[in-house]
Every structure is written in C-alpha cells, then in structure tokens.
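Marked as duplicate of an earlier ticket. Keeping the data here for the record.
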Amino acid sequence: MTIKLIALDIDDTLLTSDKTILPSTLDAIKQCLARDIKIVLCTGRPLAGVQQWLDELGIDGPDQYVVTYNGAIIQSTTGAIIAKKLIDNAGYRWLTAFGQEHQLPFNVLDAESRIYTADRDVDFVTVVQAMENSAGLSVRQPDELPHDFAITKGLYVGNQAKLDAAEPLVRETFGDVFSVIRAGKNFLEVMPAGVDKGSALKALGDAIRIKPEEMMGFGDEGNDLQMFATVGIAVAMGNGTPIAKAHADYVTATNDDGGIAKAIKQFVLDVKK
C-alpha cells in the first residue's frame, strides 16, 4: 500500500535531544511533500507550540493538517478546526480538586493554546511546558474563570516518582470517564473520552480520504501506542521506550542518528542502501 500520510510525534522523535531538526530529516520530509504526501505533526502540544517547526518544514496552507493536544483538536495549519472534543467545566473542576487534594501539580490547556493552573506554587515542569509551547501561563482558581470554561486536556506533572505513585489512583478515579495517558515520565495526561492520536488520525483520514493503512506513524512514548495501532506502518524511534518499541512494526535509529530519514527512505522513498 502506498503511503499518503506520515504522522510525526515531536519531542524525542522529530526533534533531536537539543530540540532541533536534523538536516537528513528535513530533506526526507521535503521530498515527501514534493510527492504530495501529507506530513502531519501529531503531538500533545497546542498549535502555537508547533508553529516554529511547521514553518521550518514548510508545512502550511488550508490543505495541510496538525493533530494537537494528543488528538483533542484536529485542525489545518491555518487554524481551521476539522474536529475537536473538550472536557467541560465540571470535569475541569473535578480534575483540579483532585490535584489539590492529593498535592499533585496540575495544569490545563484551553483550545487557544493557553495554560492555566490553580497552583500558587507553580511546578517547574509547568513553567517549562508554557515556555516550550509559546503559551501564556495564568494562575487562576476555577471560580475566577468563566462558568463555561472548557479544556482540551489536564496534566498532572512534576516528579516522576510522585507521578508513578499517583498514576493508579488517577486511572481508578477518572479512567471510566476520561482518557488517561502517561505521555512521559513527568506528564500524566487526562483527556476527553475517546481522544488519542490514533482516533484523531482516523478522523482526519476520513475527512481527507486517506485510509489508515495508507499512513505511517513515528513515535517514542506511551501516548503513541494508539497511533501505532491505527497506521499501516508504525515506527518507534531507537531512543523510544520499551513499550513503544514493543508495539511498533519497525524500530529505526534514534532521533539523534537520523531515524526518521532512514525509515522514510526505506518505506516511502524506496532509496536503496
């Protein structure tokens, strides 16, 4: 089956350890774009947090797309919404109260890329998150926000050991109502039910008439597993977690060693060694 869409996780996949895009990756992606293959950044970040890489890759226009907030919003690179699913105000308040009760640092993202937290002592991970995503950071209690304030996702963040200990209770409390995904050692994300990268890619494919088996996906973490289960060719980075590698069709080189370009050349561009 010919690959018509390539979905790329960003952190530790598209980006190297020093947060840059390798020249080999850039060249491979530009060759794909020249063949009218869709390149879709598929990430937990908001649109504002990926714009610099969209610009660098030359991905723009109303017929190019991004999957943001781990699938809560599907949109064109110009910002037009294809589909979105949010957690309502009651859910936001519930998640916030849980974080306060259990002393878990917590923040949320709205649909306009802004980050809010009710924590007066803002965790360092939240600060870095806001900086990396070019997002505003506001400290607000739920009663200080509009009664219809809704979120794309909530994040319990911070110390890995504390999140490891809290994760079972978070899943027990919210797992029947929301999607709970460990997106990294410092991030435990809660999203609307049914939201993940895989379901978002399927919805995008339905909208632009590309079948899941015509897609290729690159990732490195637990939040990429649903994407791997959806696409025709699932590629884990060599630096990925054991669980990501176990669920992939192919394990490529690391993000620092040209893993994306090597897999694209092998499976899409038919470049022989």
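See parent ticket for discussion. The chain has a mean pLDDT of 94.
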